[in-house]
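Weekly structure sync, notes
Attendees: PL (lead), two postdocs, one rotation student
Agenda item 3: pending single-chain targets
PL asked that the sequence for the first pending target be pasted directly into the notes so everyone works from the same version. It is reproduced below exactly as submitted, 299 residues in total.
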Amino acid sequence: DFSRYGNASVITPNRSEAMAVCGFPIRDSDDAIRAAESIRARFGIAAVVVTLGEQGMVVVSSGSVAVIPTQAKGVFDVTGAGDTAVAMLAVAIAEGMPLEDACVLANAAAGIQVSRIGAARISRSEVLAAIDAQSTIAQGKVLGLETLQIAVRQARGEGKKIGFTNGCFDILHHGHVALLEAAARECDLLVVGVNSDASVTRLKGAPRPYVPSAARQAVLAALSSVAWVCEFAGDTPLELIRALEPDVLIKGADYKVADVVGGDLVLARGGRVVTPLFVANVSTTNIVDSILASRKASP
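Predicted structure, written out during the meeting:
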């Protein structure tokens, strides 16, 4: 009887419970979304998360639908999986994390639980490591500022040093990759700030960017050197640096330390500003010019 949960913020029925309430079979995520929407409308619940075992979970709230795939690599014992997911979800929401991101953590925690025999204690660091290992947007590497601040605070509480660098990364090239790898060696977890599309256009002029922000962030998130990616709308990442308070600020060796935006803030907190390397003669502009020149030269 879900009427007792009327006007709740979020409920987490499993497949069987949702089927019993809705009266139709739930075979896949589309059925689960339909069930969640029905439950929301019928009982006035703000958000419904339907757990689907090996098919992951669906999240339905006002104007938002998400399908989160399972992260279990092997299922040995399902004991405690549901309780683990609910506990992780509750903790993440209580800490202010957006619902969809909280569900990603909950799903990861459940995936770890079923890979073990019996009900096991799952640590926060294990959950974050499992998410990081997947290297995809849906599993938490591309974050909004509020969620990123929570992740950074948690990591710092575990003794991790946070590094930060930024750029447009319009067409990712080996110069970018080399700098990001060097930056990652300066810290435990590297945050990459990415200029928004409007910011790139202001800085570089039309028709830049050639690659939209979401795609640029996705490519960066796929790199093992990068822990998290966050877009910023300004012409500089100053406000992002102010909000994250990184321990290390990294830019290319073509910058002087005194000229690095936000460097004074990091140094004032006892942090470091480093400029490890610069790969010459490679840039997005050079790549595009080379492509255009080859097209003109071809018959």
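Discussion points:
- The chain has two domains: 2-134, 145-289.
- The radius of gyration is 22 Å.
Action: rotation student to compare against the earlier draft before next sync.
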